[in-house]
Amino acid sequence: MSDLLKAIRYQHPERLPVSVSLLPATWARHGDALTRICQRYPELFGNVASDAATSYYTPPSYHAGQFTDPWGCVWSNVAEGYESIVTGHPLPHRQDVRKLRAPDVDMGLPHGFMFLRLMDLRGFEEIMVDFAEEPPELQLLIDIVRDYNVRQMKLMLKKSRDELIYVGDDNGMQDALPISPAKWRKYLKPAYKAIYDVAHADGRLVYMHTDGCIFEVMPDMQEAGADMINPQIRANGLDNLVRVCRGRIPINLDLDRQLFPFASPERVREHIFECVRALYLPEGGLGLTAECGADVPLDVIDMICRTLSEARDFHI
């Protein structure tokens, strides 16, 4: 059993689970220099080939240009190696929801499969008005997206025997939820539970990535079936995460990606160990992950890797 699974189950992982994510734009900017850093830390990256910088994996949405997904959402991207955003919403008017049919194409559960999908379909302002006014079309839209996602989860489970199922859907903004916790519990919690119940019925665990300020509903996410949550430190605050999660909700902490581009390597090292000291328990419940964009200096990336490698062996 991996240390991450032991951490989720509070079964005393031998080492603190850690990971580093390097975005396609980061590879494109730093190239061979980034490859050399990765080769210094096989415990984080495995055996990295010397040509890794020129053959990095780029998802379709990270290419410059436009494309339309099976839901009819138009995605636009102005720079290679960065994520696209939805600029064309297929349901601009509330009554359009009544004509919506879920795609026949099976997309799986890409990032933004539930809450963000509602925004992508209606547009941010329109879906916020829907949550404020609570028309019947809101629940209808949620039901259509939820049922499609339940089908996708069933298909995913047939294709993979992995014990841990990874999903991602950003629910928060920088300083708050975009809707009230009460409305999140009313509308989103049942939808996630219906999807995650499928995984649990098959004996799987669910890892939920979700950006933004979410600490107010993290216990609800757990009740809905998220066995481990991947929250952002900057958006939620270390004190809130300690209060809500330590010893209660397993988290894979997303370290401060808003700090990395501007801080010294020494400050980044201090930040990582501050988080470890505050959240670590020998029995588990904690992992650490760092995402490095193209604006993170190489010496900071190297320090992140070095510090996380050391943090693996942290003990109180």
From TrEMBL:
Pfam families: URO-D. InterPro entries: UROD/MetE-like_sf, Uroporphyrinogen_deCOase. Residues 122-286 form the Uroporphyrinogen decarboxylase (URO-D) domain. SUPFAM superfamilies: UROD/MetE-like (SSF51726). One of its GO terms (molecular function) is uroporphyrinogen decarboxylase activity. Gene3D superfamilies: 3.20.20.210. GO terms for biological process: porphyrin-containing compound biosynthetic process. This is Uroporphyrinogen decarboxylase (URO-D) domain-containing protein.
